[in-house]
Design goal:
The chain folds into 2 domains: about 80 residues; about 30 residues, no CATH class. It is mainly alpha-helical.
């Protein structure tokens, strides 16, 4: 099952750059949608990827259901691929603000997290709920 030259004893790993999804031009291929780590969905402020991965999969599932309906002919004037391409707009509309780097310099902010309760609370809300700092 593995391609020639692949070494199962030495799996390769990589870290998804935080906020990489913002830089990608397209997450949709021919009958394919990239979600989670494959699509670069990781929060820029924290590097956390599980929540953005699940969120991107949820948005992709909606697009896939629309594509299946178009494929069955239930949606006139729309092709399967056109319905999948809606994922591009949907994830940006819903997730972009969560994935983007906050408009502050984290090098100056992080020391304040440990000494200033208000900054710690704001950073926690940004981390947990995607609110702007």
């Amino acid at each position: 099952m593995l391609p020639k030259g692949a070494n199962a004893a030495r799996p390769a790993g990589a870290v998804i750059p935080a906020g990489a999804a913002i830089e990608f031009d397209n997450h949709v291929g021919k009958r394919t949608i990239l979600v989670g780590d494959a699509g670069g969905f990781a929060a820029a402020a924290t590097g956390e990827g599980i929540y953005p991965g699940i969120w991107s999969a949820s948005i992709a599932a909606r697009s896939i259901l629309e594509a299946l309906a178009a494929d069955r002919g239930e949606k006139k004037g729309t092709t399967c691929q056109d319905a999948l391409l809606e994922f591009r707009n949907a994830w940006r509309r819903e997730m972009a603000s969560y994935l983007q780097m906050p408009n502050v310099n984290l090098a100056f902010l992080l020391p304040l997290v440990f000494t200033n309760q208000e900054i710690a609370d704001r950073f926690a809300r940004a981390f947990l709920f995607g609110e702007n700092l």
